[in-house]
Amino acid sequence: MNVKSPAFNLECIISSMSTLSESQTFIFLSAPKAGVSAAEKQRRILAYLQASRTCHTLKDLEKILPPVASINGMQVKEHIQALSDEGQLHVEKIGSGNWYWAWGGEEKKAREKTIDALDKEVEKLLKSIGDLESKVMALKEEQRLEDARSHNGTREDNERERIALMKKKDQLETEIACLESNIKQRSEGDGPGSIAQKETDIARWKQEAQMWTDNIYILEEYLKRLTNGDREVLDAVRRECYGLAYVEGEVLADLDI
Question: Where is this gene product found (predicted)?
Fold first, then answer.
């Protein structure tokens, strides 16, 4: 059986590297070695403790866990502390030291407890959503009814106002027709109250007013002879007889005819 010596293997490696470029050689030498992640190490530790179904001291774990989780003894405490902080590992101080353990069903129970809590929260939220939707629907229905009442009320008010205006219009049209009839009768007729009759009466009244004015002046001349032209006596008589129609110094006020 032929066994290659370490020297032969080293020569092969050096020979292979001589064919690489400078950058390729750097990558080859600096490439990190693939290893187990911290999460995977902690998973292995937790699985071992659950499977052991017993309690352990830190000293025992520092001896047991290195081959289990591919870690050295100095890293055991760090990973144990991380699991304790996450609540996946129980720790209790008994006597002078801490004891660590983990039960297999606890993780499942924790998940179930979390799921139950989430289900209750979801149920509570769904109930709140249902209540809010009911309130929204009630408000919408109330608003719809209010709009309908407002619309109907406005329509009824408009109808009442329209009827009142129509009645007022009919009344005004009746009054206008009556006035137009009166105007027509007065302008076209010649009976009492007609325009023609009033014009005749006005002309007659003017003539009578002028006649009585002339008679007053005749009486004034007669009174002037009786008083021998005494102006004070004449003015006193005029004030007494004419009243408001008397104008100082002008005898009677002019008639606007």
Answer: Nucleus
**Whole-number Å distance between alpha carbons of 149 and 44:** 74
CATH number at 36-101:
1.10.10.10
Average pLDDT, integer, range 65-70: 88
Q: How confident is the model at residue 56 (pLDDT cuts 50, 70, 90)?
A: confident
Beta-bridge partners for 92: 99
Give yes or no for residue 33 having a pLDDT over 80.
no
Two tokens, residue 111: 């998940």
What is residue 31's predicted lDDT score, i.e. its pLDDT?
40
Burial 176-188 (b: 16+ CB within 10 A, else e): eeeeeeeeeeeee
* Average pLDDT score, the chain: 76
> What pLDDT, on the 0 to 100 scale, is given for residue 143?
85
- State if pTM tops 0.90: no
Lookup: tokens for 225: 């002879």
